[in-house]
Design a protein that fits this description.
By secondary structure, the protein is mainly alpha-helical. About 65% of the residues lie in helices and about 5% in strands. The protein is globular.
Length: about 110
């Protein structure tokens, strides 16, 4: 039987939080190419480095590190989208068969935010 990742699994909330925090950090540095995919790849490739950086970063909803108004608006929309997505996943009791499937779902869904 394959791996099942349920909507209430810590790996789902962890991945969404990581994407938001890493994306905010990348936006703050002006790196915007393939933002969601690159952020998720950074998280998956170096989870220990992410955990170390996370301790120094402010809360997910804080836009303080961003100075560009366009980046602030985009990030706020991204946070709002993730919140709505999590509510929908809980309602639908969404499950994933692998981390790759979860990652693809997040990349597909969050890359559409403008």
């Amino acid at each position: 039987m394959g791996l099942k990742i349920k909507w209430n699994d810590d790996r789902v909330r962890g991945a969404t939080t990581a994407v938001l925090l890493i994306a905010r950090d990348r936006l703050g540095r002006g790196v915007t190419d393939n933002l969601i995919q690159a952020s998720l790849a950074d998280y998956r490739n170096d989870p220990a480095g992410y955990k170390a950086a996370k301790a120094a970063w402010s809360e997910v909803s804080d836009v303080g590190p961003l100075t560009n108004p366009r980046h602030v608006a985009y990030y706020q929309k991204l946070v709002s989208t993730v919140d709505g997505l999590m509510k929908k996943m809980i309602q639908a009791k969404r499950q994933f068969n692998s981390l790759a499937e979860l990652d693809n779902f997040l990349i597909f869904t969050l890359s559409r935010v403008q």
